[in-house]
Design brief:
Number of domains of chain B: 1
Largest interface: A-B, 38 and 36 residues
Bound molecules: adenosine-5'-diphosphate, magnesium ion
Number of strands of chain B: 2
Strand content of chain B: under 5%
Order of helices and strands of chain A: EEEHEHEHHHEHEHEEHEHEEHEH
Strand order of the largest sheet of chain A: 5-6-7-3-8-9
Helix content of chain A: 25-40%
CATH architecture of the largest domain in chain A: 3-Layer(aba) Sandwich
Number of helices of chain B: 12
Radius of gyration of chain B: 20 Å
Distance between the termini of chain B: 33 Å
Number of domains of chain A: 2
Oligomer: heterodimer
């Protein structure tokens, strides 16, 4: 067994009395795409900063490429490409200057960086913006530039903190496509997100985080299998009647979740259940049968939705 | 071709490698690239301001005042104030870059945070930014000397030493200015810097010797760096050396070292803890 690239045991981060990351364990293997899925405040960014050697843990152990970030910060950072939650591109410089100077921060030669810039501008689809100032870019372009910038040093691990938060659907899909390409080249990805579709799309394996703790771990499919049913039937009766029918519905399947606007019923065969409900003359105003998602896993684990 | 990892490994066993990657140069390089597209107005103002003061006071007031005792011989009023104004412009140049510009990069653009996510250390950032601020002080000093020499205000060749002196005091101000700025969080706090600076420069003896003050005020002024800066440059301008000159140098050594220390420490605590 090759050693994992990143390995955390009992990792904890406290800010004063508040525990932001609470004794978590996880491993990230070479070449995999590893996700931290959780709502705002779960401790994802804090965990990312500890891995990136820009924040020190309070207790526990963590090793990145076999090293402790507390003692080998600069060397660890030389292995990583970091895409922070908030873009911190250099607004005084142009697109290509941003890539150039970032390479210089790593100590790379000008010649090497100049060649690399062409490759990265192609990758980020920013060739025609190379001389534009950062402010002139759209949100999606800024994000792609931040990713390209993180790749200047040819990192072994790319850290992406909420790569598509705040982007419109089209920009998100372009970004996902770029990340798929990266994955194919064998770069190890560590991604945080509070979008379950993003986690399902991009992550080979993930941990579900809530309030600083890891609630579950596995591939998206394994997690759904373990914590949810194959299908979900969503029914709405209008907010007054939902309460009234809920006890009846509860008898009809193994698990239901009452949300403010709808009721989720967990079953293997959603259509069959819907027929049974109709047979009881309950007549929901709307109904939908869908496959279980990571959102259902999260709801099961915490009793809350990912996005509040 | 060395990879980023190999470059980082080379320094791995050196003392202080967590704080300093030996690449303050990269920060300077960034500043030069940014300069190409920045506005020239504040930079030009820094050049012109001391010259305007020199013309207005040196030749305007100078007519009324005549000669003054500089403490290093009696000289024309314009000759007396020239080194004070040189020192003031070097200090102002250094302050401009190390306060407002640093505040912006620290709090608004999050530039330092980005830099410190690379193998760079906080001392690289501090040294690079302070050196940049110091270069501004240097260029102001050279320009001022180039303008005053043809006017016959430079007493002798030794005045050339006023340039390294100006760099030294700019280093002190930039280092200390960046340290203080790194602890400030709001614009109101930054505004306080201006409130302190204006009287400090007005009363520090660039336009007249501080011996005109009552003893307590004279003593108070001697605590401030601007007085030491003006006196240091004035000493060298007139080719004059004594224990006081050394004391001024010592004062700036302390400013430089403590400024670098606190800036580095603060950057580490802000972005790497
Ligand atoms: N520097 C800090 N000081 C104090 N509390 C912090 C700091 N950074 C994060 N926190 C708190 O830690 C918790 C986890 O934050 P974070 O890791 O940013 O969560 P996430 O990225 O999952 O949204 C939040 O409650 C946040 O308020
Ligand atoms: Mg976050």
């Amino acid at each position: 067994m090759p050693e994992p690239l990143i390995s955390a045991r009992g990792l904890t981060k406290k800010y004063g009395d508040f525990t932001a990351v609470d004794t978590i364990d996880f491993d990230v293997d070479k070449g995999e795409s590893f996700g931290l899925l959780g709502p705002n405040g779960a401790g994802k960014s804090t965990t990312m900063r500890i891995i990136a050697a820009t924040s020190q843990r309070s207790s526990g152990t963590i090793s990145i490429l076999g090293r402790d970030p507390e003692e080998h910060g600069p060397q660890i950072r030389a292995h990583l490409g970091v895409v922070p939650q908030q873009d911190n591109l250099d607004g005084e410089l142009t697109v290509s200057e941003n890539l150039f100077i970032y390479g210089r921060y790593f100590g790379l030669s000008k010649k090497f960086i100049r060649n690399k810039i062409e490759e990265l501008l192609d990758f980020a689809q920013l060739q025609d913006k190379r001389d534009a100032k950062v402010e002139a870019l759209s949100g999606g372009m800024k994000r792609r530039l931040t990713i390209a910038r993180a790749l200047v040093s040819e990192p072994d691990i790319l850290m992406l903190d909420e790569p598509t938060t705040g982007l419109d659907p089209q920009a998100r899909h372009i970004l996902w496509d770029r990340l798929f390409r990266l994955k194919e080249t064998g770069v190890t990805l560590v991604i945080t997100t509070h979008f379950m579709d993003e986690a399902e799309q991009l992550c080979d394996r993930l941990v579900v985080m809530d309030k600083g703790r890891i609630m579950a771990e596995g591939s998206p499919l394994e997690l759904i299998k373990q914590y949810s049913t194959k299908e979900v039937l969503e029914v709405r009766f209008g907010s007054d009647r939902n309460k009234e029918v809920a006890p009846i519905l509860r008898e009809m399947c193994s698990r239901i979740e009452e949300l403010p606007d709808r009721i989720l019923m967990y079953v293997e065969d959603g259509e069959a259940l819907l027929e049974a409900i109709t047979a009881k003359k309950l007549h929901p105003t709307t109904s939908l049968v869908r496959r279980s998602s990571l959102e259902d896993v999260f709801l099961r684990l915490t009793g809350r939705s990912l996005i509040e | 071709m060395k990879s980023a990892v190999e470059i980082a490994e080379e320094r791995a066993n050196r003392w202080g490698h967590q704080l300093y990657a030996g690449r303050a140069r990269a920060i300077l390089e960034r500043a030069f690239i940014a300069l190409r597209s920045s506005t020239w107005v504040p930079i030009a103002t820094g050049f012109i301001e001391p010259v305007l003061y020199l013309l207005a006071f040196g030749y305007g007031m100078g007519e009324l005042i005549g000669n003054v005792d500089s403490g290093r011989g009696t000289v024309d009023y314009a000759v007396f104030i020239a080194p004070g104004l040189l020192a003031t412009s070097a200090m102002n140049g250094a302050i401009y870059d190390s306060t407002w510009n640093v505040f912006f990069k620290l709090n608004e653009s999050k530039l330092y945070k980005g830099m410190l996510a690379t193998p760079l250390g906080p001392l690289d950032v501090a040294l690079g930014e302070i050196t940049w601020a110091l270069l501004r002080g240097l260029s102001y000093a050279i320009a001022f000397l180039a303008i005053t020499a043809p006017l016959g205000l430079v007493p002798g060749i030794s005045a050339i030493l006023a340039i390294p002196a100006a760099v030294f005091i700019a280093f002190g101000f930039a280092s200390f200015g960046m340290a203080i700025t790194s602890y400030f969080k709001t614009y109101q706090q930054m505004g306080m810097i201006n409130i302190v600076l204006l009287p400090m420069f007005l009363f520090s003896g660039s336009l007249y010797p501080i011996s005109v003050y009552p003893d307590w005020l004279e003593f108070l002024i001697q605590l401030f760096p601007s007085w030491h800066g003006i006196e240091l440059v004035r000493d060298l301008w007139f080719g004059y050396w004594d224990a006081g000159t050394l004391m001024h140098l010592g004062y700036f050594c302390v400013m430089i070292v403590s400024g670098l220390y606190f800036t580095t420490r603060r950057l580490r605590n802000l972005f790497m803890r």
